[in-house]
Amino acid sequence: MDRKLAEQIVELVNAHVDQLISSLDPVEAAISAEEFAGYKRAVARVINAYDTEIIDRVTREYPDLKPGDDDSEPPEPAEPRTSRNWARATPASAGLRNATGGCRTDSIGKTGQ
Q1: d(CA 28, CA 33)
Q2: What is the pLDDT of residues 35-80, one digit of tens each?
Q3: If 104 and its partner were Cys, which of 22, 43, 63, 67 is the partner (CB 3.0–4.6 Å)?
Q4: Which residues contact residue 84 at a Cβ distance below 8 angstroms, ignoring those fewer than 6 apart?
Q5: Do residues 94 and 73 make contact, with C-beta atoms less than 8 angstroms apart?
Q6: Residue 109 within a domain
């Protein structure tokens, strides 16, 4: 695979991950807590599949395209908020991406703020 195609694939996956993560707040507002827990798990599985089935394969050939890990810097404390799902008191994207190994970490915590 040539580098330009590899870059396009990583960009596409990252865009899809961002779209999935941005769906969390509106979906949570529209469905029950139980339904949302299932939805959130499904989104995490999809992100994990993107990481293991696509990103990992691309970055074997182009390791520099592997997303950086922002875990070296502690996240800013989230302001307390009421939520049906206490696990989302921290940014939803951080929880999903950290749980799955992360596709792209440069936007962690920026969605929904």
Answers
A1: 7
A2: 999 999 999 999 999 999 999 999 999 999 987 643 334 444 444 4
A3: 67
A4: 28, 33, 36
A5: no
A6: no
pTM score > 0.70 for this model? no
Q: Please identify which residue in the block is written with the tokens 């074997």.
A: 60
Asked whether residue 106 is assigned to any structural domain, the reply reads: no
Sign of the C-alpha dihedral computed for residues 102, 20, 45 and 41 taken in this order: positive
Find, among 60, 64, 112, the residue nearest to 89 by Cα. Answer: 112
For the chain, how many structural domains are there in total? Answer: 1
Domain membership of residue 34 as a residue range: 3-100
Instruction: Say if CB 6 and CB 62 are below 8 A apart.
Output: yes
Q: What are phi and psi of 58, to 5 degrees?
A: -65, -40
